[in-house]
Amino acid sequence: MLLLLLPLLLYLVSEAAEVNMKGVLTVGEVFSKTSRSPVSEFLIAACKMVIFIGASAGWAFTLYDDPIYAVGSSWRLAVIMLWSVYMAVIAWMMADMIVHMPYAPVALWEDLFNVGWLWIGISAVLVAHPVVYLGWVWMQITLSFLFAILIAGVIAFWVWLRRTYGRENNNDLTGVDRPRSI
């Protein structure tokens, strides 16, 4: 279902990118006013990734080590770890937008944070938590595939953002970085 909506989402975002960019705040303009450097953005993203994957690995290990939950299904581990990979990819994308896509509209970064991180990420763990502990195997398999599809969709969106707003692809003859239309 999500993959069917991805072309429509990319079309709508590309239409929004072709609108006159005057007056639109960019990621570079907003985050240049902060005191953090690009290196610190990547270090923060790396720490977020380690925290999410490490905490989820610890959670999975406690489930694996507990005799009550270890007997049921190995899909529990997949649900936990795929959620952490999804959150890590979102964290990396947000840092990559700050460092390598300074001409991307800041609304894209805010939507990535609000939709990807808060709405989907937090609601997904709130759904995954009881599913993991109650041992519904069919729901664990469904959530594992849902997280895999979410990760693939987010990576496809990241590739599109890099091709549209990335620094290495936007240099014209003047040497000025500009977003290109699709």
Overview of the structural elements:
The chain is elongated, with a radius of gyration of 19 Å. It has seven helices and no strands. Helix 3 (38-65) packs antiparallel against helix 5 (75-100), helix 5 (75-100) runs antiparallel to helix 6 and helix 5 (75-100) runs parallel beside helix 7 (137-165). Mean pLDDT is 80; it is low at 15-22 and 172-176. It has one domain (25-167). The chain has 182 residues and is an all-alpha fold.
What's the alpha carbon Rg, rounded to whole Å?
19 Å
Oligomer: single chain
Tell me roughly what share of residues is in helical segments.
over 70%
Biggest sheet architecture: none
Q: How would you state the average pLDDT, rounded?
A: 80
Outline, from the CA principal axes? elongated
